[in-house]
Amino acid sequence: MRFAEKLKKARKDYGMSQEVLADKLGVSRQAVTKWETDKGLPDIENMIIISKLFGISLDELLTDEKESHIRTRFLYESKTEYDIDGNKKFDLKLGSADSLVITGTDDEKIVVLLGSNDIVNLRENYKVKIDDIKRRIDVEINHVNRTVETESHESLTIEVLFPNRYLDHIEIECDCNNLEINNLVCENVEHNGTVRKCLVKSLEGVFELDSNANMDIAINKMKGSFELNQVVASSRITVPSDLSFQTRLKGVKTSIKYEKAGLKTEDYSVDDSENVIEFNGIKSELVIATED
Fold first, then answer.
1. What is the spatial distance between Cα 228 and Cα 226, in angstroms, rounded to a whole number?
2. pLDDT per residue over 93-106, tens digit each?
3. How far apart are CA 149 and CA 217, in angstroms?
4. Strand partners, 254
5. H-type helices in 37-113, by residue range?
6. What residue ranges define each of the domains in the chain, with the CATH number in brackets?
7. Which SS3 state, helix, strand or coil, does residue 16 take?
8. Inter-residue contact 109 to 166 (CB < 8 Å)
9. Following DSSP, what letter does each residue of 227-240 receive, concatenated?
10. What is the reported pTM?
């Protein structure tokens, strides 16, 4: 995949228009169009901004590699894995990170991958502990060197690979700038902690997100429910135009508004849809939007 395709895909995955991306980079929309039609490349300064904005390494942006896995994206990496022998409840306390990637797999193990281009000696600075307690798996990441806590929030990526066949329930505590959900099949997932951006690439089940930060959320593919709980916050969910969903509104002084192609519109949710977007909060607002 060439840079033009990667940029366009990343932008759409984040539910971002060319105009919004251009504004973030301080360039014209025509410049973004030129890059996405393979008629030019950004300068190195904008390339770095794009890399950080979408959580994609410069190497990945500028090469035709098909694999974008954490193990090939970072200068410094570490891996911890544990074999699973049956259905489990998973309880994860992950601390802070720039990005958290949750991926469902066909394997029979849980894998915790740490990656960074700035933090050296990951194994010495972070201790990953996996405990198997009857029908529960506890995963904890501890900072051995407290001086890396700030760096964690700026430049650490955590990816957790879950065995879909053995998922009973997942609880996650993590403060991160970016949260990504890939190919996850689980009856119930709960995430508690500050999140700025959330990308749901593929989800089957119920995902509950508690975060009081203003959020940008993009849902690409979902079968089930996405439940957002917030207090005094304003967030936005971008969905594909062909995704059918119903909405549920709970809480005190909360509201849901709708947009299509950047314009305010009437409620286009479907009352009997099997997919649900639920918003529960206090003095909070949610905008559900589609680009088409």
1. 7
2. 999 999 999 999 99
3. 26
4. none
5. 44-54, 58-62
6. 3-68 (1.10.260.40), 72-176 (no CATH)
7. coil
8. no
9. EEEEES-EEEEE--
10. 0.76
